[in-house]
Amino acid sequence: MNPAIPDEMDALDPLALANRLRPILMQISRHLRRETHMLGASNTQVSLLATIACTTNIGLSALAEREGMTTPTISNHIDRLEAAGFVTRQPSTSGDRRRVALAITEAGQHVLDSVRAQRTAWLARHLETLPPADRAALIAAIEPLRKLVES
Fold first, then answer.
1. Would you say residue 51 has pLDDT above 50?
2. CATH for 36-150?
3. How much is the pLDDT for 1?
4. Span 45-59, mean pLDDT?
């Protein structure tokens, strides 16, 4: 059996599939991270900006939980994002005066939009080189990959 072309049984084995899929996903991830760094933002900063942008009235604790970080670590990241003018801390609408809500600024949204545009452009340039049948296979894989991420 050719290891580059597994038989149908191997292709359905989750461990075999994971071993083939993981390095490819990692390579794509590295390429997309490089696009972020070219704009002068870290991947962590972009992730935080995206979460803040799509989650109205999010606080530090909720952001830390969502990002899988400790509250002190998130606080340090937010301090830097605030100093850069990308986020603001505002009184929470929850009524708790001790809690602050985070909001993305216009400058932060610009960084986020630029990163998304750069990443999308990189993907589009590389997808353009694939034959239509390969692009169709990727379209068919989108929904199963989305389910994988959400599980």
1. yes
2. 1.10.10.10
3. 46
4. 94
Side chain identity, residue 25: L
Separation between Cα atoms, residue 80 and residue 111, nearest integer Å: 14
Look at residue 3 and tell me whether its pLDDT is greater than 60: no
Biggest alpha carbon distance in the chain?
66
Q: Name the amino acid, one letter, at 48.
A: L
Q: The pTM is what?
A: 0.78
CA-closest candidate to residue 80, choices 48, 54, 112, 58: 48
**Residue pair 104/52 in contact by the 8 Å Cβ criterion:** yes
Report how far residue 123's alpha carbon sits from residue 76's, in angstroms, rounded to the nearest whole number: 32
The two counts, helices (H) then strands (E), for the chain are 7, 2
Show me where the domains of the chain are located. 36-150
Please tell me the distance from the alpha carbon of residue 57 to that of residue 20, in angstroms, as a whole number: 40
